Amino acid sequence: MILLTGATGYIGSHLWIELLKGPTPVLGLDNLSNSSAKTLDVIAAISGKTPAFIKGDIRDVELLEDVFSRNCITSVIHLAGLKDVQESEERRLEYFDVNIQGFKNLLQVMRAHSCLKIIFSSSAAIYGQHAISPILEGVSAAPANYYGETKLEGERLLAQEFNKHPAISSVSLRYFNVAGKHASGLLQDYVSSNAHSLFAEIESVLLGRASALSVFGDDWGTPDGTCIRDYLHVSDLAQGHIDALELLGGVDKCAALNLGLGIGQSVYDVISTYERITGSSIPKVIAARRAGDVGVSFADTHLAAELMGWKPRKTLSDMCRDSYQSCTKRLS
């Protein structure tokens, strides 16, 4: 059985649907602090299977002990955590408690129950402001915010567990900018999101929650003056987790891999693609640069291709179309 933490969140729900297509049973765990139990009904509707779910928090060691005692868990996909960059600076203790101490709890209980395989949700935030794009996994990590620090510490914990006996094998997946929605348009955000991603902000405008999109600087040293980022469809990200599980199937390993489209695309590229999909303009205003932003950041994904045979299949147009379809269903 696979234990999927953070199972009803944005990435978790999309991944859960893909995992249910496979032969291995999946048990979802989430405290529902940033998601909703309504997502379970949507997962069931799309997959045709009733998802097995436990409401719980990774900071609760007794609950984790009970989960592992009652279920034959052979591998874990760990997505649960707090993930807002700006918020992490203001709520460091909470981010430490969830992202680091909660992860320590999970690893402790895994080892106690001889569960020795884990896929870890890491982040490109570990690279910091000075990494040169395309970014290779081997560059020195230098997080520019506390969220990135918590993800880097997670990778350090996994390295320590790999050097113990028996080794816990792991693949840390360093996500770049995840975007898009399930092609059905049925998976929705049922709770107010504090996400500050470009796609989330565009959706806020389309849903009438914001009057205009803020573009943070148009004077970067890029062709059109706006920041360049690496956007990856959430369905391609989900497949990356499945491929990583297969990678751990027959070998002990402690690896870290980039998951991104491997192409840098500017803020204006995203806006113009979205406008082409919707057939209407998106109102926008130029705002001051945000502290900690960098002009260009995109991934080198050759290692994921080499080790897992993984490659993204969805384009920026697919991300914009699926995001827009989700918005239209929420408005209907």
Q: Overview of this structure, please?
A:
It is a single chain. The protein has 332 residues and is of the alpha/beta class. It has a domain at 2-176 and 232-260: 3-Layer(aba) Sandwich (Rossmann fold), CATH 3.40.50.720. 40% of the residues lie in helices and 17% in strands. It has helices at residues 10-19, 38-47, 61-70, 85-90, 92-112, 146-162, 198-206, 234-247, 267-278, 302-308, 316-331, and strands spanning 2-5, 26-30, 52-55, 75-78, 117-123, 169-175, 177-179, 213-216, 228-229, 231-233, 254-259, 265-266, 284-287. β5 (117-123), α6 (146-162) and β6 (169-175) form a beta-alpha-beta unit.
In one word, what is the shape? Answer: globular
Order of strands across the main sheet: 3-2-1-4-5-6-11
Beta content comes to 15-25%
Helix content: 25-40%
Helix and strand pattern: EHEHEHEHHEHEEHEEEHEEHEHH
CATH superfamily of the domain at 2-176 and 232-260: NAD(P)-binding Rossmann-like Domain
> Got a strand count?
13
Largest sheet features: 7 strands, parallel
Average of per-residue pLDDT values: 94
Low-confidence stretches: none
Measured distance between first and last alpha carbons: 38 Å
Overall CATH class of the domain at 2-176 and 232-260: Alpha Beta
CATH topology of the domain at 2-176 and 232-260: Rossmann fold
